[in-house]
Write a structure and sequence with these properties.
Number of strands: 8
Structural class: alpha+beta
Helix content: 25-40%
CATH class: Alpha Beta
Strand content: 25-35%
CATH topology: Alpha-Beta Plaits
CATH architecture: 2-Layer Sandwich
Distance between the termini: 84 Å
Number of helices: 8
Radius of gyration: 25 Å
């Protein structure tokens, strides 16, 4: 065999060995990836697996698109009714927070309500309101100010903070994720570990997933002193080992997402 042929033969052998090593390494990495971050297979509704067992809280979120010229009057009217409901112990509901969208859909009001007692409390509250003449008049007056409205019923993730009143001033970010059907448990599995990276600055307010309305929707609610603090807090998460893995494994679960920056109204418990 000539010297040139021997050189070609040696190069081919080395290339084959390197390719085999890479293939074996890749196979092992791929095989391990099946078990790293693997979600436990369970036969139960994700509402039972992901929500808090110690409470039976049900949440309602409202999105009201207001006529631009009516926003100030709308806020005043809404605040008056919310205060009355809070003072009346016969109504098993309470407003958690009220905001106007600053960045996102303009001239929009967002309200988050809590029903302690779940669906029975919701039903009881609706029955009482439908028999309340003052409230029915309020709805007629409010309807004149609105372009559109929609709502969702939500449960809170077991591993998130329960949203409690806080002093201000703060801005709030609501990050909404529209997930691929069938991925809610996997999402919860990853975020149950990841939430620890986002609690040091007390920015985590609450995390919810939809039950009625648009399905497979997640809302994460955060509080920041201002937009600069928001940027610094979010950037600091990337310096913590493990946060990048959470992003890597959850991004493929998302169909679309949106972010709202919101300013609390004067009567909002979350300031």
């Amino acid at each position: 065999m000539s010297s040139k042929a021997r050189t070609l033969c040696t190069s081919f052998v080395k290339l084959h060995q390197a390719t085999r090593r890479f293939s074996e390494s890749s196979d092992k990495g791929w095989f391990r990836s099946l078990f790293v971050h693997k979600v436990d297979a369970r036969k139960d509704a994700h509402s039972n697996l992901l929500s808090k067992k110690e409470t039976s809280n049900l949440y309602k979120i409202q999105f009201h698109n207001v006529k631009p010229e009516c926003l100030e009057a709308y806020n005043s009217l809404e605040a008056e009714v919310q205060n009355r409901l809070h003072q009346d112990q016969d109504y098993p509901c309470e407003v958690v927070g009220s905001w106007n969208t600053w960045y996102g859909e303009q001239d929009q009001a967002v309200h988050l309500w809590r029903y302690r007692g779940g669906y029975p409390a919701l039903t009881q509250c609706l029955q009482k309101l439908n028999n309340n003449k003052e409230y029915l008049e309020f709805r007629k007056e409010r309807a004149k100010m609105l372009i559109s409205r929609r709502n969702q019923l939500l449960l809170e993730f077991s591993f998130w903070n329960e949203p409690l009143p806080r002093p201000g001033p703060n801005i709030y970010e609501m990050r909404t994720y529209y997930l691929k059907p069938g991925t809610m448990i996997e999402w919860g599995n990853h975020w149950a570990r990841a939430i620890k990276y986002r609690q040091e600055n007390n920015e985590a307010v609450g995390g919810f997933f939809s039950q009625i309305g648009d399905m497979y929707v997640v809302h994460h609610l955060w509080a920041y002193e201002n937009l600069q603090v928001r940027e610094e807090t979010r950037n600091s998460a990337w310096q913590k080992e493990g946060w990048d893995a959470n992003v890597y494994y959850t991004v493929p679960l998302i169909r679309t997402m949106e972010s709202r920056i919101m300013i609390p109204t004067k009567n909002s418990p979350l300031q």
